[in-house]
């Protein structure tokens, strides 16, 4: 059996899969098809890669469909790639068990929580500052973008504009965002002012499970649905989106495990593939969550700096479900924390707090009393 929280999340997700002929007995297997983007190549260095200097990483190559589609060599790389993807889906319409999508996943621009982690250093951030709402000058609970973060999203805006206008890159047909404000702001700054055709208007849907790894930090606790709606009135919510954040457990010092995150990332990707027949899809999310989705898509790991974007050609196939592994995993575990800025933190051991905490002292006293 899986963890209780995952079952709860599963219960929230739409029950039967409605993709073409999918029955509830089918599972979806994902493959990132290599050979189309630089980001698939193990020799590409993610820490220095910039989508905006490389046409989003689209490889300059020919496709088997070029001869028929572009006999006079007049089309752009993006037009020929889009035509090739269409031809793949055309073949799939016959077997009904396979489909292809092009997912563009963008990490939000720099938020106040990113600035604070740099300012305080990662050990002090993880063990103390990240658990607070802010420091009096900056607020990082459900952090918004810094000026640098807005500039990163504006850069994406200008780059998309150039690709659409000069390179005839296809417009997105669907837009999704994490419910956290830094992603909503990034998606909005990136797409809202683009001159998009009416048929491909920017009508983003917020999906709960595109949110960041649910750590004890307040930047991973979302605002209420009412607050999000007031912040971005033109963003839609997926069905069943709850008023309150039911997943964050920071007040109990508990954070999501990576096994849980990968499992819930598969749920949201299955949901998109089962209910959205569009091919060109934009997702605005987070470093940890995009990393987790890349795992689900069987893509090589490719860490994104703030504001960076990765496209993936995804092949999805309906398969007989594999036997559920009987091993259980913890969904949430206690994360270390200190009552004041820590001396340091040690990988694998956690926080080295500056002083003995009140909690420990009280527990010791209670134990002593019980013994008496
Ligand atoms: C493809 O060619 C164009 C134009 O020469 C160049 O700007 C782009 O960087 C090339 N893309 C890759 C992935 O090498
Ligand atoms: C609060 O944190 C921000 C970084 O997010 C930093 O720039 C600022 O100086 C800090 N304020 C105080 C009072 O330490
Ligand atoms: C979204 O973009 C529009 C158009 O630029 C702007 O008026 C609005 O304030 C933006 N909202 C957010 C939340 O960024």
Automatic annotation (TrEMBL):
UniProt entry tagged with the keyword Signal: yes
GO MF annotation, one: phosphatase activity
Keyword vocabulary terms for this entry: Signal
Signal in keyword set: yes
Entry's Gene Ontology cellular component terms: cytoplasm
Superkingdom classification of source: Eukaryota
UniProt-listed InterPro entries: His_Pase_superF_clade-1, His_PPase_superfam, PGM_Phosphatase
Segments traversing the membrane: none
Signal sequence segment: 1-18
Entry protein name: Phosphoglycerate mutase
């Amino acid at each position: 059996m899986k963890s209780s929280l995952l079952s709860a999340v599963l219960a929230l997700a739409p029950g039967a899969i409605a993709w073409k002929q999918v029955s509830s007995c089918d599972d979806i297997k994902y493959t990132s098809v290599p050979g189309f983007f630089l980001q698939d190549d193990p020799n590409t260095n993610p820490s220095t890669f910039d989508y905006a200097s490389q046409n989003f990483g689209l490889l300059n190559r020919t496709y088997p469909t070029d001869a028929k589609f572009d006999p006079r060599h007049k089309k752009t790389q993006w037009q020929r790639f889009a035509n090739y993807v269409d031809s793949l889906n055309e073949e799939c319409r016959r077997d009904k068990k396979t489909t292809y999508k092009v997912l563009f996943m963008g990490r939000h621009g720099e938020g106040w929580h990113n600035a604070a982690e740099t300012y305080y250093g990662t050990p002090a951030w993880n063990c103390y500052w990240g658990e607070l709402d802010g420091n009096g000058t900056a607020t990082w609970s459900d952090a918004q973008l810094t000026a640098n973060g807005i500039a990163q999203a504006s850069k994406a805006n200008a780059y998309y504009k150039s690709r659409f206008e000069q390179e005839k890159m296809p417009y997105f047909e669907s837009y999704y965002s994490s419910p956290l404000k830094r992603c909503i702001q990034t998606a909005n700054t990136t797409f809202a002012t683009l001159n998009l055709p009416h048929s491909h208007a920017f009508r983003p849907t917020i999906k709960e499970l595109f949110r960041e790894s649910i750590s004890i930090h307040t930047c991973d606790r979302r605002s209420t649905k009412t607050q999000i709606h007031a912040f971005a009135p033109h963003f839609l919510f997926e069905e069943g989106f709850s008023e309150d954040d039911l997943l964050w457990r920071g007040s109990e010092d508990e954070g999501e495990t990576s096994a849980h995150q990968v499992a819930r990332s598969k749920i949201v990707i299955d949901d998109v593939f089962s209910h959205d027949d569009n091919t060109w899809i934009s997702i605005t999310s987070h470093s940890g969550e995009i990393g987790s989705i890349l795992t689900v898509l069987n893509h090589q790991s490719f860490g994104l700096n703030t504001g960076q974007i990765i496209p993936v050609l995804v092949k999805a196939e309906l398969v007989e479900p594999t036997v559920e592994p009987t091993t259980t995993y913890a969904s949430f575990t206690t994360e270390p924390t200190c009552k004041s800025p820590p001396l340091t933190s040690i990988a694998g051991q956690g926080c080295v707090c500056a002083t003995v905490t009140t909690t420990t002292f009280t527990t010791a006293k209670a134990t002593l009393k019980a013994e008496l």
